[in-house]
Write a structure and sequence with these properties.
- The protein has one domain (2-162).
- The radius of gyration is 20 Å and the shape is elongated.
- The protein is built from seven helices and no strands.
- 79% of the residues lie in helices and 0% in strands.
- Keywords: Cell inner membrane, Cell membrane, Membrane, Transmembrane, Transmembrane helix, Transport.
- The chain crosses the membrane at residues 12-35, 86-107, 127-147.
- Residues 23-151 form the Tripartite ATP-independent periplasmic transporters DctQ component domain.
């Protein structure tokens, strides 16, 4: 059970890493075939597109899990605790709103793309487009877990400042 929990926790890291490795490998292979052998591989662009989309959205989940997105928190730290909390709540609400919007429209896009396939590999675009809702839902899950952790940190700073 512990192993399954650990695997699920790192699933986004594994998928994003695999997508990046395949992206880099296929790109190097494509460049080699195009310029060294003068025989371009037709499928490289499609694989690259699939890998980039999955890497971006699932990698975003991995970054959210680690609180690794760029933030300008030094400005917020200049304000009193109640302003910091209000800013935190506002930012979290905006993140949930944007991620929900993207997940919903990504899901609709994926459903619309069922009949559209890539030219060479005949991969339905649904498999490419579903990275958007999957990644956004995972980001919301990690954001919820991080919200609890960050909220506790905000309160502990306030208690330290009071003592």
């Amino acid at each position: 059970m512990k192993m399954i929990k650990k695997l699920l926790y790192h699933a986004d890291d594994i998928v994003a890493s695999a997508a990046l490795i395949i992206l880099v490998g296929s790109t190097i292979l494509g460049v080699f075939y195009r310029y060294a052998l003068s025989d371009p591989l037709d499928w490289v662009e499609e694989v690259s597109l699939l890998c980039v989309v999955w890497f971006v959205f699932i990698g975003g989940s991995s970054a959210t899990k680690r609180n690794g997105h760029v933030g300008i928190d030094f400005v917020i730290a200049l304000f009193p605790a109640f302003v910091q909390k209000a800013a935190f709540v506002f930012v979290q609400a905006m993140c949930y709103a944007v991620l929900s919007f993207m997940a919903w429209w990504g899901w609709l896009l994926g459903l619309q793309a069922q009949l559209k396939v890539t030219n060479m590999l005949r991969i339905p675009y649904t498999y490419i487009d579903l990275a958007v809702p999957v990644g956004c839902i995972l980001m919301m899950i990690h954001l919820a877990l991080g919200t609890r952790r960050n909220w506790k940190a905000l309160f502990s700073r306030e208690k330290e400042a009071a003592s």
